[in-house]
């Protein structure tokens, strides 16, 4: 068994942030292979957030849309929706912590990783989405 003495930091290349009519936000990302443990979302108020999913894995969300930044900065909690394709694997609430600067401690890797079953469209409808922002890079 290999011991992991570092945090794996994955960059999520493409993600969506949606807002419902109540001002609640949900962030759609690729599903990861394990359950989150005490996750938190750090936000620098500019264009980058870091989802600390558990003690060994963090997800970098870079290139957040400017309009989204204003709403995210005022949010106390966001919903994280993990998808495998169009299938929702898990949904969980995460507190938002506004920070001056995000400190990237760990080994950085490219994400694009790929795990109940509900479609993305069903979740968007039940969430009551009124705005959808696509963020990140398309490359």
Can you summarize this structure?
The protein has 139 residues and is mainly beta. It has helices spanning 66-74, 120-127, and strands at 8-11, 14-20, 25-30, 40-43, 48-54, 57-62, 77-84, 87-98, 107-110, 129-136.
Give the helix/strand layout.
Layout: E1 8-11, E2 14-20, E3 25-30, E4 40-43, E5 48-54, E6 57-62, H1 66-74, E7 77-84, E8 87-98, E9 107-110, H2 120-127, E10 129-136
Parallel strand pairs: 1-6, 1-9, 3-7, 4-8
Antiparallel strand pairs: 2-3, 2-10, 4-5, 5-6, 7-8
Short descriptors:
47% strand, mainly beta, disordered N terminus, 10-stranded mixed β-sheet, 139 residues, 10 strands
User: What's the β-strand tally?
Assistant: 10
Hey, roughly how much beta strand do the residues contain?
over 45%
N-to-C CA distance: 35 Å
How would you classify the helix and strand content by structural class?
Answer: mainly beta
Largest beta sheet: strand ordering: 9-1-6-5-4-8-7-3-2-10
In round numbers, the mean pLDDT is 82
Low-confidence regions: 1-5, 111-117
| Number of distinct helices | 2
Shape: globular
Write down the secondary-structure element order: EEEEEEHEEEHE
Major beta-sheet overview: 10 strands, mixed
Query: What's the alpha carbon Rg, rounded to whole Å?
Result: 14 Å
Helix content: 10-25%
Describe the structure.
The chain has 139 residues and is mainly beta. It is built from two helices and ten strands. The protein has helices at residues 66-74, 120-127; strands at 8-11, 14-20, 25-30, 40-43, 48-54, 57-62, 77-84, 87-98, 107-110, 129-136. The protein has a ten-stranded mixed β-sheet with strand order 9-1-6-5-4-8-7-3-2-10, with helices on both faces. A hairpin with a 2-residue loop joins strand 5 (48-54) and strand 6. It is globular. The termini are far apart. The relative contact order is 0.32. Residues 1-5 and 111-117 have low confidence and may be disordered.
């Amino acid at each position: 068994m290999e011991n992991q003495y570092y945090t794996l930091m994955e960059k999520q290349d493409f993600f969506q942030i949606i807002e419902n009519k109540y001002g609640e936000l949900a962030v759609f990302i690729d599903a990861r292979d394990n359950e989150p443990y005490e996750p938190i979302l750090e936000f620098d108020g500019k264009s980058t957030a870091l989802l600390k999913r558990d003690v060994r894995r963090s997800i970098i969300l870079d290139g957040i849309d400017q309009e989204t930044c204003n709403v995210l900065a005022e949010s106390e909690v966001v919903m994280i929706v993990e998808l495998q394709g169009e299938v929702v694997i898990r949904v969980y609430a995460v507190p938002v912590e506004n920070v001056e600067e995000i400190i990237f401690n760990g080994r950085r890797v490219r994400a694009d990783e790929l795990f109940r079953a509900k479609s993305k469209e069903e979740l968007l409808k039940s969430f009551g989405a009124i705005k959808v922002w696509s963020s990140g890079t398309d490359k």
